[in-house]
Amino acid sequence: MRCVIVFCALLLSCDAQLAEVKPELNVTLHKGLSERIGNFSIELLYHTTLAQDKVSNLIISPITVWTVLAVLAEGASDSTLTQITTALRITPALKEAARREYQEIYKWLQVKTNTVELQRLNAMFMDVSNDLQKDFVDVAKEYDTHVIPANFSDSNTTTAAINSLVSSVTHGRIPMLVDSSSIENSKLVLTSVLYFKGQWTAPFNASYTTKQPFYDSSGNQIGEVNMMYRRHNYPFANIKTLQAKVLEIPYGKDNRLSMLIMLPNPGVSLNNMFYNFGNESLDTIFNELKISAEQYSDDEVDCLLPRFKIETSLELTDALKKMGIIDLFDERKARLPLMAYLPTHVSRIIHKAEIEVTEEGTVASAATAAFLGNRIGALKFEANKPFCYLIVEKVTNSITFGGFYHTPSLF
Ligand SMILES: *[C@@H]1O[C@H](CO)[C@@H](O)[C@H](O)[C@H]1NC(C)=O
Ligand SMILES: *[C@@H]1O[C@H](CO)[C@@H](O)[C@H](O)[C@H]1NC(C)=O
Ligand SMILES: *[C@@H]1O[C@H](CO)[C@@H](O)[C@H](O)[C@H]1NC(C)=O
Ligand SMILES: *[C@@H]1O[C@H](CO)[C@@H](O)[C@H](O)[C@H]1NC(C)=O
Ligand SMILES: *[C@@H]1O[C@H](CO)[C@@H](O)[C@H](O)[C@H]1NC(C)=O
Ligand SMILES: *[C@@H]1O[C@H](CO)[C@@H](O)[C@H](O)[C@H]1NC(C)=O
């Protein structure tokens, strides 16, 4: 039996009205599972970028990958199980506690306001002939994974059902996740979808967007971008251990979701900066951002950020193998007895995601270069060389989306 796993994630973000609400964060959910998922997320981003055969821009949704693997762990035994739980940083014996904590976190990954929308859906399509273990189906539900029966012999109908569900959650942004040939030999397809649309708390004004050069880490110009500009009192910190500057750009009105832009110091490569991130917690970074926001609340930052769009469709198998998950993909070694009666392994894990970062698209760009000059008192944060971005849900410290921008283009 073959088992294909597919999941996708999508992000679309633009901007909106100004709002200055900054409630205190409740950090009780930052410890425990949340921190483990965070560490997994950073490792996954690191290995995904290393596994790319050529350097290109990247967007992935680490928490959806974590979720799919956690569901698989519930069906696994022997070294298949321990390899997954080690990478996920959960203890097999404490799976039940992990499920409870996950539900607590997952609750927060749903938002629907005028300015921010975050939707998620996990679904497992299983063949009508597939004898899934009943306990597994029940446990999957605890990970909020719906089980949907389908007839895999009729692959066109099943493909249409999967695509239509994914398309409806992503508001049509991912109309075709699978084609019928890719599910032909499968008996099971697991999908995890996350959709985000956020408007900046302080939008960029498109009249200030200008064409600007973009450099590589060594300072050579490698292309041009449409650079957005905004002066605002963004939380900003210089994190020495990261060898990077970090800027927080909040979404919406309730200070729940933010984009963090991490820009390496001169002479530091993106990979090195990100490697350092493995030793740093998100809490430390947010604390430094908070301290700087309090101490320098009047300091404005000139933020220059390229308008960009990234679409990623990648196989995560290699990155996950680097993280020690090996047997799951091996037809002979995979052990998933708690999931299905027949021998089952995972043939592929496909991840599709998309991000679009803009100011507000319809305003004509008429730029004045002089405007970009650095006034006394304003700090300058210029993302004109490779950077990392993370979209973080702050109540739970979840990295919902993250990636790298290093290949410029005029979007
Ligand atoms: C923080 O969140 C936890 C869990 O949701 C809750 O039990 C606690 O009362 C909250 N604390 C504050 C200060 O709001
Ligand atoms: C599944 O689809 C095949 C091909 O269309 C059909 O022959 C079969 O009867 C279907 N099975 C069920 C249980 O509906
Ligand atoms: C499935 O769709 C493909 C492409 O649209 C088509 O060529 C094929 O005949 C269809 N198969 C069935 C059984 O309907
Ligand atoms: C954007 O800037 C232009 C030029 O300064 C100004 O006329 C316009 O009102 C601004 N738009 C917004 C939405 O602030
Ligand atoms: C991370 O911390 C460990 C233990 O303190 C240390 O051995 C390692 O060199 C550090 N890695 C980086 C990238 O700083
Ligand atoms: C997560 O990573 C941080 C930084 O390396 C480390 O201090 C912490 O112990 C890790 N937590 C877990 C649960 O692995």
From TrEMBL:
Pfam families: Serpin
Listed GO CC annotations: extracellular space
SUPFAM superfamilies noted in UniProt: Serpins
Gene, per the UniProt record: LOC112043780
CDD domains tied to this protein: serpin77Ba-like_insects
Keywords (A to Z) from UniProt: Protease inhibitor, Serine protease inhibitor, Signal
Upper classification of the organism: Eukaryota, Metazoa, Ecdysozoa, Arthropoda, Hexapoda
Domain Serpin stretches: 45-408
Name of this chain's protein: Serine protease inhibitor 77Ba-like
One annotated GO molecular function: serine-type endopeptidase inhibitor activity
Native source organism of the sequence: Bicyclus anynana
Classification via PANTHER family: GH21475P-RELATED (PTHR11461:SF367), SERINE PROTEASE INHIBITOR, SERPIN (PTHR11461)
Family: Belongs to the serpin family.
Signal sequence, start to end: 1-16
